[in-house]
């Protein structure tokens, strides 16, 4: 137990310290990598809330990343080029509020429909909705269509300068810790207990008097909002957003991270994101067909480590 | 005594199959009312209609004089009707006490508590102790349900029904799949609950039914052909022909 705890602490500490050290000795690439890792891990933490703890396999969570990033890009675009004055701003808090509102609303509206279905149908319909978001942004010429939108100005937050890579990284890292803690808290609460009850035996939960549909919807919205927030960071990090970020293959990558790392665990999404980002870098530098060994790895994990990577550390 | 449940002219067809036909039934408050009948008589369909998983084609169901015919399942549960299932239905990946916690109204009423847990609150702990004590599962408190025997799972289901403070318990074949000694334990358990709660018992095991029931209704092809005290039911010629005589 003690060993596992210190191992987890070690992972978190290295994730914080090493990228900054590498950056100071001129290898800023690793800092960027770590920032991207943290942001993807936040999205995976969000997805894990419903996929891992709630048993809802959403194949459309990249949509929220995209919505969050456009919530930065569109106001910044209008701030620079005019039009839609009520929206034009570079204020980071406004960006975050817009992202939360839009991703929450998108989760509410799609969740109302998706959660009427189960299993494979749920997977397909969540994917269908995220593809709708994809084609919506492809079709809006004003925001670059499928060429994407360059975000000229990063969100402005008092005392924080997101143009500084180290500050960008620290914001992403602390957000990650915050959301891991938040999801951990939620899963230990009454609501979390009910959510795992629903995952285990939905029919029984209904007969115990729970409004299962409503509780699933709440979790779905929470999860969407967390991914929306990750999108705000992603937009600020890449300073570029394109519909490609919403594509279903991106949603698949998020699922990959959650399953690889271990569903329904606090550290799982982070482990998954670490392995995903590092492998992607390493394998793609060796071969352009890096998806092949990647896929084989996922199959191995699913077959032999049912609980994902976290199961290796929790026994 | 008052009627806790009253069913009037209930009808339900599945395609061409008549599952419930002009069914009338009254259950007295505090009774253990058994419903027996041959296979395919429509017992489970009746339970499902009372509980709200299946809605009748026509007819009415009153619970404590409220028309609950069209009220959905989870709302009926909140009114105080609870059921167990013919095929054991519990949360297998969770522990015994977590199952009980989920059944308590305190957790349900505070289901939107995102940051606090009631797991350690004294009234939840007392409830767990009480319910598990009633069914004799106290030692299994922290065990995962997956490690329990079939008989213990059935007891857990009863304990969950107790934890919900239900006014009316629908027990759908609680003896199904139990061995002889486990059946005796279950009979003793139900005997202990009898009188404290109104129970509708749907059961195949005739020994159990006659040992426990205050009143028995016999269901054949979706119709109730007789209702009465156990001794009268035994003597009823229609019942003997339709059901007991066959065995």
SSE topology sketch:
The complex is a heterodimer of chains A (315) and B (247).
Chain A: H1 2-24, H2 28-51, H3 62-81, H4 92-114, H5 119-139, E1 149-150, H6 165-187, H7 190-200, H8 202-207, H9 212-238, E2 240-241, H10 248-261, H11 268-286, H12 291-304, H13 310-314
Antiparallel strand pairs in A: 1-2
Helix pairs in contact in A: 1-2, 2-6, 2-9, 2-10, 2-11, 3-4, 3-5, 3-9, 4-9, 7-9, 10-11
Chain B: E1 3-14, E2 17-28, E3 32-36, H1 43-51, E4 58-63, E5 66-67, H2 73-79, E6 81-84, H3 96-103, H4 105-109, H5 122-135, H6 150-163, E7 168-172, H7 180-193, E8 198-202, H8 206-212, E9 215-220, E10 223-228, H9 230-235, H10 237-242
Parallel strand pairs in B: 3-8, 3-9, 6-7, 7-8
Antiparallel strand pairs in B: 1-2, 1-4, 4-5, 9-10
What does this entry look like structurally?
The complex is a heterodimer of chains A (315) and B (247). Chain A is an all-alpha fold and 315 residues long. Helices cover 73% and strands 1% of the residues of chain A. Chain A has 13 helices and 2 strands. In chain A, strands 1-2 form a two-stranded antiparallel ribbon. The termini of chain A are close together. The mean pLDDT of chain A is 89. Chain B is an alpha/beta fold and 247 residues long. Chain B contains 10 helices and 10 strands. In chain B, helix 5 (122-135) packs across helix 6. The mean pLDDT of chain B is 85. The chains are: A mainly alpha (315), B alpha/beta (247). The A-B interface holds A 185-186, 188-194, 196-197, 200-201, 203-212, 215, 218 and B 51, 53, 73-75, 77-78, 82-83, 85, 89-94, 98, 101-103, 105, 107-108, 110-119, 160, 164.
């Amino acid at each position: 137990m003690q060993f596992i705890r210190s191992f987890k602490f070690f992972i978190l500490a290295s994730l914080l310290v090493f990228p900054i050290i590498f950056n100071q000795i001129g290898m800023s690439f690793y800092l960027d990598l770590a920032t991207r890792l943290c942001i993807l891990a936040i999205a995976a933490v969000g997805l894990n809330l419903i996929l891992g703890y709630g048993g809802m396999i959403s194949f459309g969570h990249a949509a929220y990343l995209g919505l969050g990033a456009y919530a930065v890009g569109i106001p910044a675009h209008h701030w620079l080029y005019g039009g839609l004055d009520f929206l034009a701003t570079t204020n980071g808090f406004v960006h975050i509020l817009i992202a939360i509102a839009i991703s929450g609303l998108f989760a509410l509206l799609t969740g109302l429909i998706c959660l009427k279905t189960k299993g494979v149908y749920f997977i397909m319909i969540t994917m269908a909705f995220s593809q709708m978001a994809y084609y919506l942004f492809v079709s809006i010429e004003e925001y670059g269509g499928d060429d994407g939108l360059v975000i000229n100005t990063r969100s402005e937050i008092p005392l924080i300068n997101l143009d500084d890579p180290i500050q960008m990284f620290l914001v992403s890292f602390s957000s990650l810790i915050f959301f891991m803690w938040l999801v951990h808290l939620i899963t230990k609460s009454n609501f979390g207990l009910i959510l795992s009850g629903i995952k285990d035996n939905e029919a029984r939960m209904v007969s115990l008097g729970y409004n299962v549909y409503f509780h699933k919807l709440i979790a779905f919205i929470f999860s969407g909002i967390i991914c929306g927030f990750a999108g705000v960071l992603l937009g600020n990090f890449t300073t570029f957003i394109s519909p490609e970020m919403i594509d279903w293959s991106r949603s698949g990558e998020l699922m990959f991270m959650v399953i690889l790392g271990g569903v329904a665990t606090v550290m799982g999404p982070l482990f998954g994101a670490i392995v995903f980002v590092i492998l992607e870098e390493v394998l793609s530098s060796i071969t352009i067909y890096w998806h092949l060994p990647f896929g084989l790895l996922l199959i191995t994990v699913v077959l032999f480590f049912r609980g994902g990577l976290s199961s290796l550390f929790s026994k | 005594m008052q009627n806790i449940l009253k069913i009037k002219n209930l009808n339900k067809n599945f395609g061409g199959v008549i599952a419930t036909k002009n069914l009338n039934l009254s259950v007295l408050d505090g009774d253990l009312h058994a419903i027996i009948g041959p296979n395919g008589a429509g017992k489970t369909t009746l339970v499902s209609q009372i509980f709200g998983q299946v809605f009748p084609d026509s007819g009415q169901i009153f619970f404590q004089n409220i028309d609950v015919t069209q009220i959905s399942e989870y709302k009926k549960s909140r009114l105080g009707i609870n059921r167990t299932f013919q095929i054991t239905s519990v949360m297998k990946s969770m522990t015994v006490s977590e199952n009980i916690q989920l059944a308590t109204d305190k957790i349900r009423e505070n289901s939107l508590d995102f940051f606090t847990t009631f797991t350690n609150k004294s009234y939840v702990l007392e409830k767990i102790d009480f319910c598990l004590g009633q069914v004799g599962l106290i030692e299994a408190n922290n065990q995962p349900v997956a490690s329990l025997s079939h008989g213990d799972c059935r007891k857990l289901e009863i304990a969950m029904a107790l934890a919900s403070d239900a006014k009316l318990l629908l027990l759908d074949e609680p003896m199904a799949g139990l061995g002889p000694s486990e059946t005796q334990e279950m009979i003793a358990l139900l005997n202990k609950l009898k009188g404290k709660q109104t129970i509708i018992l749907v059961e195949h095991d005739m020994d159990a039914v006659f040992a426990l029931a205050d009143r028995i209704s016999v269901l054949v092809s979706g119709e109730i052909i007789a209702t009465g005290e156990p001794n009268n039911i035994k003597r009823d010629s229609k019942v003997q022909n339709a059901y007991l005589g066959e065995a």
